[in-house]
Write a structure and sequence with these properties.
heterotrimer, A alpha/beta (about 280), B mainly alpha (about 280), C mainly alpha (about 250), B: about 280 residues, C: about 250 residues, mainly alpha, two-stranded antiparallel ribbon, 10 helices, about 75% helix
Chain lengths: ~280, ~280, ~250
């Protein structure tokens, strides 16, 4: 007969097996309505799309959009700060219901996350560099140290095309510190953030510029689980997205947050205005 | 110290008279040195800022402004260390007992687990737990959420568990076999001997390495800042970004280093004192 | 080779297990480079920390109390503060404040790169432990040996180098090996300052290819295997250098 210890161990194994049974797949929109709140993953270090105000609250253009979604669904809004490296994991784990965090819409990502079309914004890749670096074109980056942040979709493309030596940090503050310390010749990031940093009037960025031509324009999209893409939540968000462009909500929000008027939004507004 | 040409055990060799007195002076001197270095860095930062023409500003005032927030983060670090230590010690005790069990399969399984968790780097284990543990556990009656901090505590407690298991194993194996035999002679069962005779004797010997482990654990808690949890390191970095002055870097990091030092150094001294008191006199 | 790549591609397409390092050349080269960087970073830091340990152990026997105090201060500082904070302190704080030099492109850059700071910081950290280890090893050598060497006309340095150190090394080998293993595990901290070692390479791969689950497992297994090999090698060396009859 098995001893006491062995029996206890077998019991633990069986309990573990029971606990690891996969959960039933539940429709996300139902879950949201049941819970009474929608959990949205947003950025908290990307001014002015998602950033922290002096009181500690997360605010920004994307937060306004998320609030609109919550209001239209009749539920409360719950915000969770995410980074480029963990937002998709959080979504697939079920920790957040929706990604609204400056996420670029790329074919590889479409395999993992359901992207809501029409896209709600578009950005492009550029570099924040000191004026003294004298960078004129992308090929000037060859062999130079360029700071970047983990999880950005353009890191691979830029490093394959132009051969810089990418120095990748876990988050934006470290990359900016390293840039200011002279550890790299520039900071590779989305041009929307670079423009907003330079135009904020902060004296420490006075000697910096965005010298290169913005490349690889990438539309941003809201992200939902692949199962939800053609389900009730996905359909609702797609209709809402068309609505935003039609009524010019996005253009208004752009003005409200002081973002430079984007030709992409203007095009989309004109396109949907008549429909 | 013996004049015989035999080699002395390094542990016994540590107890030199002069050493104790020297360490007494040194701890005071060290504190003074740390504070002096800190003060010097603050003064140089002040001077640099004034020369840099950006308007003189008071480094001490800025540090004091951010100290309460960073102190909160530091206390969170300590909380994480205490929780991880508790969890790791609890689990490690059982793992250690499994390691010295009479059941062969248990011994080998425990040995494999201990080797695995001792060989894996702490940061990798932490990443592993943060990414791959579910964010909530579905029990038949309720869903228990697992916040980030809990995952970090679990991640940090795994190496602690393995090391505590080794300490327990070492402790149990250092008890002379006569104790086991006497227990058997008195008709104790094996588990009775273990819990009533052996473990109480081991406890004293296990405390110094256990405290040493706690100090090491405390010094590895800043790792949670890399996986995105807000602790003293993240807050210090956020404060530096918010202030934006490069002259602040050295004073700020020195301040953080001295807080950890002021917490861990007394623990190290206490451990050394306990080691001297509890050492096996033969 | 092609067969293996095809198998893993099939594994990805059919079962969704994406082990891109086996079929994608870029990912594989990044992973192997990361592994190589970890290995040579550990080697350099080991050598440097041994040098620091020996020099520090020598200075601990110095005549001047100030020198002894300085060494003791260094040891206590590096043993009682977190290595991550030390690393950040060196790279972000001190690195930014050092006088910058002009590099080949005419830009002002800090004189020491992030890899340099990682090596410096990790060596100083491990060196502090090594000094303590060497000291306890040296104290285990009986006074009679030292007196005998002195009576044969060795200078203090000669006694240290030819008599004390070789014996102390053999005695403290287990502790030194333990320190070496810890050093290899501590190199993962360099990830935070963007040193391209194994954890960094794996993080790059999983944030681009989006195969976190698979890469985390590969990473864990690789590190455990690497250190298991190291521990096995060190055990054999310890057994070979063991002093018969000496069992502290």
């Amino acid at each position: 007969m098995l001893g006491m210890v062995t029996r206890a161990a077998l019991a633990c194994l069986m309990l573990a097996g029971v606990l690891m049974a996969p959960a039933r797949a539940d429709d996300t929109l139902d879950k949201i309505k049941q819970r009474g709140s929608i959990v949205v993953g947003v950025k908290n270090d990307y001014k002015p799309w998602g950033f922290v105000d002096p009181s500690g609250k997360i605010v920004g253009m994307e937060i306004d959009l998320a609030q609109d979604i919550a209001t239209k669904l009749g539920v409360k809004l719950e915000l969770i700060p995410v980074t480029g490296a963990n937002r998709m994991e959080f979504l697939t784990q079920g920790r957040i219901d929706l990604i609204l965090a400056t996420m670029g819409d790329t074919p590889e990502r479409r395999k993992v996350v359901g992207m809501i079309e029409p896209n709600y914004y578009a950005g492009a890749t550029n570099v924040l560099a000191p004026k003294s670096a004298g960078l004129k074109q992308w090929s000037d980056l060859k062999g130079r140290k360029v700071c970047a942040v983990q999880g950005a979709y353009y890191n691979r493309r830029v490093s394959q095309l132009y051969g810089p030596e990418l120095v990748v940090f876990p988050a934006v503050p470290e990359a900016m510190s390293a840039l200011q310390g002279g550890n790299c010749v520039g900071f590779l990031f989305d041009d929307t953030l670079i423009v907003s940093t330079l135009s904020a009037g902060d004296p420490k960025w006075a000697d910096y510029e965005m010298p290169l031509a913005s490349e690889d324009p990438q539309a941003w999209a809201m992200g939902v689980k692949l199962d939800d893409l053609n389900g009730p939540l996905g359909e609702f968000l797609k209709k809402l997205s068309v609505d935003w462009h039609k009524t010019g909500t996005l253009v208004e929000l752009e003005k409200k947050w002081g973002i430079k008027s984007s030709p992409f939004l203007q095009e989309m507004h004109d396109k949907y205005k008549g429909s | 110290m013996t004049a015989l040409p035999v080699l002395i055990s390094p542990r016994l060799a540590v107890q030199t008279q002069g050493g104790d007195i020297a360490r007494g002076w040194l701890s005071g001197g060290l504190l003074i040195a740390v504070l002096t270095a800190f003060a010097l860095s603050v003064l140089t930062a002040d001077a640099r800022a004034a020369i840099g023409g950006a308007g003189s500003f008071d480094v001490v005032a800025i540090l004091l402004k951010w100290s309460p927030l960073i102190l909160e983060g530091f206390l969170f670090n300590l909380l994480v260390s205490v929780l991880s230590m508790a969890a790791g010690t609890g689990l490690g005790l059982w793992l250690g007992l499994g390691r010295v069990s009479q059941l062969a399969w248990l011994r080998h399984a425990a040995s494999a687990m201990i080797q695995f968790f001792r060989n894996a780097p702490r940061l990798v284990l932490l990443f592993y737990c943060m990414f791959l543990l579910p964010f909530s556990i579905t029990l038949p009656f309720a869903t228990v959420p697992l916040p980030d901090a809990a995952k970090a505590v679990i991640g940090l407690s795994l190496p602690v568990m393995a090391n505590v298991a080794e300490i327990v194993r070492g402790g149990v194996q250092s008890i002379p076999v006569e104790q086991w035999e006497s227990g058997e002679a008195l008709a104790f069962s094996r588990s009775q001997i273990l819990w009533m005779v052996i473990l109480p004797q081991c406890l004293r010997r296990m405390i110094p390495p256990w405290m040493n482990l706690y100090a090491i654990l405390t010094m590895s808690t800043p790792l949670i800042s890399i996986v995105g949890i807000q602790d003293s390191m993240t807050l210090a970095r956020a404060a530096l970004v918010a202030e934006g002055r490069t002259e602040l870097f050295i004073p700020m990091y020195l301040m953080l280093l001295s807080w950890f030092f002021l917490y861990c150094y007394p623990i190290a001294r206490w451990t050394a004192a306990l080691e001297r008191r509890f050492r096996v006199r033969i | 080779m092609e067969g293996i790549a095809d198998f893993f591609r099939w594994l990805n397409d059919a079962r969704g297990i994406n082990l891109s390092i086996f079929y994608d050349a870029l990912d594989r080269s990044r992973f192997l480079e990361g592994l190589w960087t970890t290995v040579w970073l550990s080697l350099i830091c080991t050598v440097l920390s041994l040098v620091i340990g020996i020099v520090g152990a020598w200075l601990q026997g110095a005549r001047f109390g100030a020198v002894r105090g300085l060494v003791q201060g260094y040891i206590q500082f590096f043993r009682n503060t977190p290595p991550l904070v030390q690393l950040f302190f060196f790279y972000f704080a001190i690195g930014n404040q050092l006088p910058h030099v002009i590099d080949e492109h005419g830009m002002l850059v800090p004189p020491i790169s992030n890899i340099g700071w990682a090596i410096l910081s990790l060596s100083l950290f491990a060196g502090a432990f090594n000094i303590e280890i060497f000291r306890s090893g040296i104290e285990a050598v009986p006074r009679a040996m030292v007196e005998a060497a002195e009576s044969l006309g060795y200078s203090r340095l000669g006694v240290f180098w030819h008599v004390l150190l070789p014996l102390a090394f053999r005695i403290s080998l287990p502790a030194l090996n333990n320190n070496l293993v810890n050093l290899v595990k501590t190199t993962t901290l360099a990830y935070a300052i963007a040193v391209p070692e194994l954890l960094y390479a794996a993080a790059q791969i999983w944030s681009e290819v989006l195969n976190v689950r698979e890469m985390m497992n590969v990473l864990l297994v690789t590190y455990v295997a690497l250190i298991a090999v190291l521990v096995a090698g060190m055990s054999r060396w310890e057994r070979a250098l063991r002093i018969p009859g000496y069992n502290p």
